[in-house]
Amino acid sequence: MRYISTRGKQGAEGKSFCSILLEGLSDDGGLFVPAHYPKITQEELDEWRFLDYPALCLEIATRFIGNDIKRDELKILIDRTYSERLFGSRDITPLHQMEPGFFLLRVANGPTLAFKDIAMQLLGNLFEFVLEHESRTMNILGATSGDTGSSAEYAMRGKQRINVFMLSPYRRMSPFQQAQMYSLAESNIYNLAIQGTFDSCQDIVKAINKDHHFKTQYHLGAVNSINWARIMAQMVYYFKGYFAATQNNHEMVDFSVPSGNFGNILAGYIAKCIGLPIRRLILATNENDVLDEFFRTGHYCPRSVEKTYSTSSPSMDISKASNFERFIFECADRDSEVVHGLWQTLSEKGGFNLTDARYAKVWANVQRSGFVSGRSTHVDRLKTIRDMFERYKEVVDPHTADGIKVGLLYRDTRVPLICIETALPAKFAQIIEEALGVPPPRSPAYEGLESLPQHFTLLPAAPEEVKLSIKSSIDLNGQQ
Ligand SMILES: *Cc1c(COP(=O)(O)O)cnc(C)c1O
């Protein structure tokens, strides 16, 4: 399989899976996407229904990796990743029925209690394999609003040939999230706490990646949500959830997904594009509702850092959804000129509007895509957490609550509704206590986490300062 850029020249030859695995943005500023999408046949879907998680992942991954990694080698990496030991059950992402037709897909049972482990654990093993193969080293540079960072660090800790430099918004994560990241003591993990929001962290990563000299000299790589392999890995649980919620492959389902960087729901969209019978993709935002506004009005207008609110579902406090460009690329019938133009308008005018007549086709495709959206606020979150507990004895985390709130708004009892559980409530104790009057359940493995010593470097929101810090760490400690 070859990969092309959303802003690249049409007809460009593209890159291999292994080379884009280790890169972040394309040199032209676009995102990598497969040169074409595989189509899953009815027969394949019928066979896949009976596969366990690793086997299903292997089928999907081989469609996107092609011959870049041999199937038997890939199988070893996948089997090592999706184990009961790491994810708590052989199902990996068990489906929980709240009531007939209303399900919770539990994708947050990995080591850091958020769905990001699903992709990141695989990425850790893929990275190690490819770097070893090519006798290379890599310094991962990433930005996190809380969950990506810890998930990446837990997937990469102690790995050969890899250092992680993770930017996080200082004091804008939950105490549990912060402790989870900052308590890691592995010498290949560097926590850079930035005085700013997640968007400032993400902007710094983008700015540093534009410095080609620095990027090459320090072997920078990415794990943030624009990494294609993460999207690929996340597709698997849409299939798994679909099979678990239905009797046969003629049924349709709706998925509801709490969204921030548009990575999770994009995986669902691509699953739908390649042939999974998904009817609706219900996108839920919190008070940072740029994406909801887009799907309702056609207006895409990312907010400034000052207008990005700190909310009680902090992993969605994002106003510039980095994966969104991949979706627009498809809706523009893969015309990179159109994408280029839209992003040009975005940087000049701060937004674009697809209801403008010249984008009529793009907007029509958006409306045909199956997406609907809604927004959930702190008050909704509290109410949903209480409702779920009273009705079903389930404690859900605030992000999951946002997804459930909007999911139920669009509920059609003729079609199963699968809400994705993106984190466990233990990570966000404060709002759970506010809603239920008691702290969330926490497994014994996480007792006392917040009182462990924390390791981080505090830095201003300035790319040059961050570069200096990376440079001195690498110069001091050398590459692993
Ligand atoms: C990352 C995250 C989200 C947002 O997912 P995107 O892929 O960025 O849209 C939602 N909930 C939780 C708990 C997360 O960690």
What do you see in this structure?
By secondary structure, the chain is of the alpha/beta class. The chain has 20 helices and 16 strands. Helix 3 (53-65) packs across helix 4 (71-81), helix 3 packs across helix 11 and helix 6 (116-133) packs across helix 7. The model has no long low-confidence stretch (mean pLDDT 94). The structure holds pyridoxal-5'-phosphate (PLP). Pyridoxal-5'-phosphate binds next to helix 12.
Brief descriptors of the model:
480 residues; alpha/beta; six-stranded mixed beta sheet; five-stranded parallel beta sheet; 20 helices; 16 strands; 45% helix; binds pyridoxal-5'-phosphate
Topology:
Elements: E1 2-5, E2 15-16, H1 17-21, E3 32-34, H2 42-48, H3 53-65, H4 71-81, H5 84-87, E4 95-99, E5 102-106, H6 116-133, E6 138-143, H7 147-156, E7 162-169, H8 175-182, E8 189-195, H9 198-210, H10 212-217, E9 220-221, H11 228-245, E10 253-258, H12 263-274, E11 278-285, H13 290-297, E12 299-300, H14 324-331, H15 336-349, E13 352-353, H16 360-368, E14 371-375, H17 378-392, H18 398-409, E15 417-421, H19 429-436, E16 457-460, H20 463-477
This protein binds pyridoxal-5'-phosphate (PLP).
Pyridoxal-5'-phosphate binds next to helix 12.
